[in-house]
Amino acid sequence: xxxxxxxxxxxxxxxxxxxxxxxxxxxxxxxxxxxxxxxxxxxxxxxxxxxxxxxxxxxxxxxxxxxxxxxxxxxxxxxxxxxxxxxxxxxxxxxxxxxxxxxxxxxxxxxxxxxxxxxxxxxxxxxxxxxxxxxxxxxxxxxxxxxxxxxxxxxxxxxxxxxxxxxxxxxxxxxxxxxxxxxxxxxxxxxxxxxxxxxxxxxxxxxxxxxxxxxxxxxxxxxxxxxxxxxxxxxxxxxxxxxxxxxxxxxxxxxxxxxxxxxx
Length: 264
Prior knowledge:
50% of the residues lie in helices and 8% in strands. The protein has 13 helices and seven strands. It has helices at 3-8, 47-55, 67-72, 100-103, 111-124, 129-144, 159-170, 175-183, 191-206, 212-219, 223-237, 240-246, 252-262; strands at 19-20, 25-26, 29-30, 36-39, 60-63, 84-86, 149-152. Helix 6 packs across helix 13 (252-262) and helix 7 (159-170) packs antiparallel against helix 8. GO terms for molecular function: phosphoprotein phosphatase activity.
């Protein structure tokens, strides 16, 4: 990981993949630094982690997990947190209580199985009704609020990764930077601890024999996964801009407000 990439990542003991996805060149300027945060869930956050998060003055938390995920893994907040936590009720994964990458693990045994499962998953992510509902809340929060926000799911890699990539694309971030930020999941923070934790969830949940290489594919990200989601969007709507307008409610007026809040 380069020094520039390292500067984006905040080291946490119990929160995986915590980083700033702002500060990229965008249409008309550069994304603000310190206002666009993303991470995995905070259910195992330490007191020190919560102090670090509190210092960022985050006023809006967008939780992309489903209802049963939230119930099973309650996110910890700083005692002085007074912000809003936004989510659309329901399940974002087809299997209650599971993250989206976990639902794909049922028939996976090899790395190739895992790769094909993740590609199939990413074709559906932009169109899952509950996930879309929370994406809509996020986009409108970005339009209405100038204060720092935090976007997260369970591992902070798939649902979160797509949401961050959509924001980047709508604001004119270069595609190479979009992919590079997405792939930072593989090296941000203690990636090995995240993979180990994910492996326990997957293997305990489905009780099947799975190659270590398959687990790594499920718990990581690859450029082709994100490209598959963008391809599915273009196939249905013609462009990300049209998808954002037709599915997420990002009208030209909403997009202009987001740009005014995030681009300097």
